[in-house]
User: Which sequence fits this backbone?
């Protein structure tokens, strides 16, 4: 209901973000399927920006339709938030740091994975910055 005002109800932005992150954490599978994580890593190594963006777009097309729709909604929203960075201090970089673990649900126990966290974060940052291209 777009008429609901969370602000008038005293709900803080942090509470909404926390609830959203908790929702994604409770899903049986991450929004970005585990089966595509390695492909995202490999694509992020492509030096040519245009080619990398096109390859990322092809990966997003492999999402289950429901995941695709939710991912599109979340990334588009995060892009809108990042456009207000002068007020909220939430750049695409800051947002990607906060949300990549929620969207990808990595295995932080895996030492190999720990070496790729910055790459995963940068992929989410790219999705946020270039959301008009992807969607």
Assistant:
């Amino acid at each position: 209901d777009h008429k609901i005002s969370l602000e008038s109800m005293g709900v803080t932005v942090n509470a909404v973000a926390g609830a959203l992150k908790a929702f994604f954490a409770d899903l049986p599978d991450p929004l970005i399927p585990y089966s595509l994580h390695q492909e995202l890593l490999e694509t992020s190594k492509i030096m040519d920006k245009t080619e990398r963006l096109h390859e990322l777009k092809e990966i997003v097309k492999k999402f289950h339709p429901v995941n695709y729709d939710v991912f599109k909604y979340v990334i588009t929203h995060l892009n809108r938030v990042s456009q207000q960075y002068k007020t909220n201090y939430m750049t695409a970089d800051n947002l990607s740091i906060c949300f990549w673990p929620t969207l990808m649900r990595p295995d932080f126990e895996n030492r190999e994975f720990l070496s790729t966290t910055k790459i995963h974060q940068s992929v989410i940052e790219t999705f946020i910055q270039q959301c008009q291209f992807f969607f």
In short: The CA atoms of residues 79 and 130 lie 8 Å apart. The chain has one domain: 6-133. The chain is about 65% helix and 0% strand.
